[in-house]
Amino acid sequence: MIVRYEVFDEDYIPDEILFRDSQMNRIAFCLKPAEHGSRPVNMLCLGPPATGKTTVMRYMVTHAMESLKGIYVNCQIHQTKQQIFFKIFENLYGYVPPPGISFQKLYSSILKKGVERGEILFVVLDDINLLPEKLMNEVIYLLLKGHEELMGFKVGISCISTDSKISAQFDSKIVSVFHPEEILFPVYDLEEMYEILKKRAETGIIGGKVAEDALYLIAEKSFEYLDLRFGINLLKTSVMAADRKGKDVVAVEDVEEVIEDSRSVFFRKMISALSGDEIDVLLHIYTSESRFTGDIYREMKTKMGYTKFFKILRKLEDLRLIDTAVRYEKGLRRYVVRKFKSDDVIRAVDEYAKRSL
Ligand SMILES: Nc1ncnc2c1ncn2[C@@H]1O[C@H](COP(=O)(O)OP(=O)(O)O)[C@@H](O)[C@H]1O
Ligand SMILES: [Mg+2]
């Protein structure tokens, strides 16, 4: 078999995106005003990791109408005001701005080019929740007030966030001008994951295939971790294992051979996205007997304050490392549900700590 390995890469954009019709229709609808020369409706895409937010937005940007200049900025990579506007400049001009350029000059060059080209800009700010709150607000504000600086400048913004409560961090300066349309990306169910993985396997493998039961096993594992990204990676490594042996059909045994490695890479990656305090809370949840958030907070209170603790809980929940729910027991009480086996998490934290020594 011939394998097109790029099809299994993180940044591969499929020709056909499954199960996201309603989101894509709503995005297209928000972009529609650009057809008539006005700026698109601003958007806020919310959802847990690996729910297709980046893929869908990048797809929409590439397939957007001609009058719209789509610019994609990944805030995980571009983490300062300078870097973000450098990226926008580069997209518009086709080259990087001269070193030492002042921010004011950079900013006005962007506005000028936007107006000159007679295009409407559509800026996607991906993973915006990874920016410090103040910076996030400043970037949105600078873009949205562009038309006050230079008449005729038109821009629409789409922010993408895994933090479902991000809009609570929008400050008063921007809420008066920024009323984004919220577009939600729910987690895929088992059936959906299976279909997406199947399609990916068909596209990526020529003259061979993944056996039905092997594919199902991959989908199941993917669903167990609620993470399609894990499934696609497991698919890739399973295909590699079969390819190495010169096989044309990827079988269950090929999946089983690589699953342990895949799992530890997956956990390690997840944990490397956490700060020290966040790892502390995670470990505590996975080792303590306590389930109610109030009790857990009390046990951790010498280490951190109330606001910080609950902020971390929310982040862990957004990353799907835990769930929280409410139960009636002498009043309403919030409790934590573990998403993984304790051993898996403890082992991953151990391995991560060893590696970073
Ligand atoms: N509906 C879909 N159809 C096909 N592939 C998808 C779909 N949704 C997500 N993927 C794939 O899953 C992985 C994670 O998607 P991504 O868009 O990066 O998620 P997010 O940005 O929400 O974290 C990517 O490899 C992407 O190609
Ligand atoms: Mg993403």
Give a description of the structure.
By secondary structure, the chain is of the alpha/beta class. It has three domains: 165 residues, P-loop containing nucleotide triphosphate hydrolases (Rossmann fold), CATH 3.40.50; 82 residues, Helicase, Ruva Protein, domain 3; 83 residues, Winged helix-like DNA-binding domain superfamily/Winged helix DNA-binding domain (Arc Repressor Mutant, subunit A, Orthogonal Bundle). 51% of the residues lie in helices and 14% in strands. It has 15 helices and eleven strands. A five-stranded parallel sheet has the order 3-4-5-2-6, sandwiched between helices. It has a two-stranded antiparallel sheet with strand order 1-7. It has a two-stranded parallel sheet with strand order 8-9. Strand 10 and strand 11 form a beta hairpin. It is globular. The chain starts with a strand and ends with a helix. 33% of the residues are buried. The model has no long low-confidence stretch (mean pLDDT 94). Bound molecules: adenosine-5'-diphosphate and magnesium ion. The site of magnesium ion has 4 residues, from helix 2. Adenosine-5'-diphosphate (ADP) binds next to helix 2 and helix 10.
